[in-house]
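User: For my dataset I need records formatted as: sequence, then structure tokens, nothing else. Please produce one.
Assistant:
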Amino acid sequence: MTDSVIANNGNDAIFVQSQTGNAANTVMVRNSTVANNLGGHGLYAEGAPATILVTQSAITGNQIGWTNSGGTLLSYGDNKIYGNTFNNGPPPTTPNE
């Protein structure tokens, strides 16, 4: 997902879910804004092997900035994450590739 705005939802903005044994579900968020999603998470990866990769994006004004619950959420270290009610810190960074 590139150059997108996901805003003003009542639930999670970007939710990737996998169940063990299923094919991998991976989403890359690039140069996007995830804002004011007050009923849930800005970014949420649940269950292996669900993966969200995020780069050059703003995550702001959400109930929870980001969460990974058994999934993987990785940042390229160039995002702006602030103004969320909870979890304003950056997700783990990916190795330079």
